[in-house]
Amino acid sequence: MLIVADRAEQHSPLLPALVADFARRVASKLGLPHIELSKTRETKPQKNFRSKLHKKRNVTGVFACAADAAFGTALLIDDIWATGASMTEAARALRPAVVYPLTMARTRHQGAS
Description:
It is a single chain. The protein is α/β, with parallel strands linked by helices. Helix content is 29%, strand content 26%. The protein has helices at 15-30, 52-59, 85-93, and strands at 2-5, 34-36, 38-39, 63-64, 73-81, 98-106. The longest helix is centred in the N-terminal third of the chain and has 16 residues, at 15-30.
């Protein structure tokens, strides 16, 4: 198993560091490796979009995992789950691993579908 931190979304200047620190600590306590996904391009903040479709388009194909990372299971840690678009794309970058998502908060998506 691998612990992965998704630092892509910037809801607050402090959150990326908090998420990464939390993921490192979880990995350390469990004695597991830790990596951070990288972004292949810049995106607009997800909170700028009202529709789920626009949020999905904003992050489609944006995450990458180190080419030499090989693992069967990953715990994917992120700050906030609204529509799941970022988490879905992050999990796609970790394929073929089985991904278990963990978020620090969940919000209700408000806006168009």
